[in-house]
Design a protein that fits this description.
The protein is of the alpha/beta class and about 280 residues long. Helices cover about 45% and strands about 15% of the residues. It contains eleven helices and eight strands. Strands 1, 2, 3, 4, 5, 6, 7 and 8 form an eight-stranded mixed beta sheet that branches. It is globular, with a radius of gyration of 18 Å.
Length: about 280
């Protein structure tokens, strides 16, 4: 059984529709795929319907935008109730904060000599309920200022970059609590990728497990080298939490993140399903 627990559609910052993503998962030989769009559940019903048609089990997920010490941290939520009021309110604040920083970011980019307009950015948004940095990156690509999203983030948009503007995000411990209150299972996404190991060291991840009941750690991810994967797997085993693997697929929005490039072991997925049932 091949299981990929972290993917994105054009309901957030991917490029496939939810149905197209599921078809692509089927073609990639996946048996299970989780749709985990940023701060929204809007694409899940379409993905589940496509899964029934194509014989792919679709896990209802979401990637919640959180923070620690003012820096971005992402939390994967599986099986959370979309109608949970407090979680829904916090997700709305996150989406509004993301959209609200569009103009300041564009002003900074113009000052750096790489202007793009709001209209150019909005043309990249698709069916997403909010405008995020990846959409700005796509506008920069379309305008010919950068080659791809990676260059856009590395040169301009990453946390602390010359065109970065802060926004509302949920403190990571509170985010885990929100997911649990909504009946979901919480797994921290790519914790040691892109320089995050110092922000999320083993001691802090242990604290999240002990104080907030963090359910799992995404171990096998394209942003983790072999050393990071080995360290995170040993940590997950020591803490008795789930150690997942996934592609973080974004369609053409990310290179080297093909569906199924990393997968989750079936026994880990079985435990995840059990925890969702227990949570609900």
């Amino acid at each position: 059984m091949r299981i990929d627990l972290h993917t994105h559609s054009n309901v957030s910052d991917g490029t496939d529709t939810p149905a197209e993503l599921v078809v692509a998962a089927h073609e990639a030989g996946l048996d299970v795929v989780a749709l985990t769009d940023h701060d929204t559940f809007d694409g899940l019903d379409r993905a589940v319907a496509a899964g029934r048609e194509h014989g792919v089990e679709v896990v209802r997920g979401m990637e919640l935008s959180c923070s620690r010490q003012g820096q971005s941290v992402h939390l994967l939520a599986y099986g959370a109730d979309p109608d949970a009021a407090v979680l829904a309110e916090e997700m709305t604040k996150v989406r509004e904060g993301r959209t609200g920083r569009l103009r300041p970011v564009l002003d900074l980019l113009a000052g750096l000599g790489v202007p793009v307009s709001e209209e150019e950015v909005l043309a990249q948004v698709g069916s997403s309920p909010s405008v995020g940095r990846p959409h700005i990156a796509d506008a920069l690509v379309a305008a010919g200022w950068v080659a791809d999203r990676t260059e856009a983030f590395d040169r301009f948009l990453a946390d602390g970059g010359p065109a970065h503007v802060g926004r509302y995000a949920i403190e990571i411990g509170h985010g885990i609590d929100l997911v649990h209150a909504a009946g979901g299972v919480a797994v921290i996404a790519h914790p040691w990728g892109r320089g995050r190991a110092e922000l999320l060291p083993a001691a802090f991840l242990t604290e999240l497990v002990e104080q907030h009941g963090l359910d799992g750690i995404e171990v096998d991810h394209q942003d983790h080298d072999a050393e990071a994967r080995a360290g995170l797997r040993a940590l997950a085993d020591r803490l008795g939490v789930l150690g997942t693997g996934s592609s973080d697929y974004h369609g053409t929005g990310k290179t080297d993140h093909d569906l199924g490039v990393n997968t989750t072991r079936p026994e880990v997925y079985d435990e995840l399903r059990l925890r969702i049932r227990v949570a609900v």
